[in-house]
Amino acid sequence: PPSKPVSRIPSSVTTGSNISLTCFEADGSPPSTYRWYKDNTPLPEDPSKFPNFKNLTYKMNIFNGNL
């Protein structure tokens, strides 16, 4: 069975800076895939290709990774 996923989410971010949100597990076969969601809508894998996702602000719960 797969292990519990681990999310790496910064506890604070400077406005205008880039961040990386990661989620992974130590083992599992086949490897799991992850998607980030905001209000039940999947966030694009590359937000720079979607004008609607530029200059947005997301507030994240640092305890569970929810946006």
Relative strand content: 5-15%
Largest sheet: 2 strands, antiparallel
* Beta strands, count: 4
Any idea what the radius of gyration is? 14 Å
Straight-line N-to-C gap: 28 Å
The structure class reads: mainly beta
Fraction of helical residues: under 10%
How does the overall form come out from the CA principal axes? globular
Low-confidence stretches: none
Mean pLDDT: 71
Give the number of helices. 0
- Lateral strand order in the biggest sheet: 1-2
* Structural domain count: 1
H and E order: EEEE
Keywords:
Ig-like_dom; two-stranded antiparallel sheet; 15% strand; 0% helix; mainly beta; 67 residues; 4 strands; cell junction; signal; glycoprotein
Would you mind describing this structure in some detail?
By secondary structure, the chain is mainly β. It has one domain. It has strands spanning 6-8, 22-24, 37-38, 41-42. The strands form two sheets. It has a two-stranded antiparallel sheet with strand order 1-2.
Topology:
Layout: E1 6-8, E2 22-24, E3 37-38, E4 41-42
Antiparallel strand pairs: 1-2, 3-4
Main location: other
Keywords: Cell junction, Cell membrane, Disulfide bond, Glycoprotein, Immunoglobulin domain, Membrane, Phosphoprotein, Repeat, Signal, Tight junction, Transmembrane, Transmembrane helix
Domain Ig-like: 1-67
How would you summarize this macromolecular structure in one to three sentences?
The protein is an all-beta fold and 67 residues long.
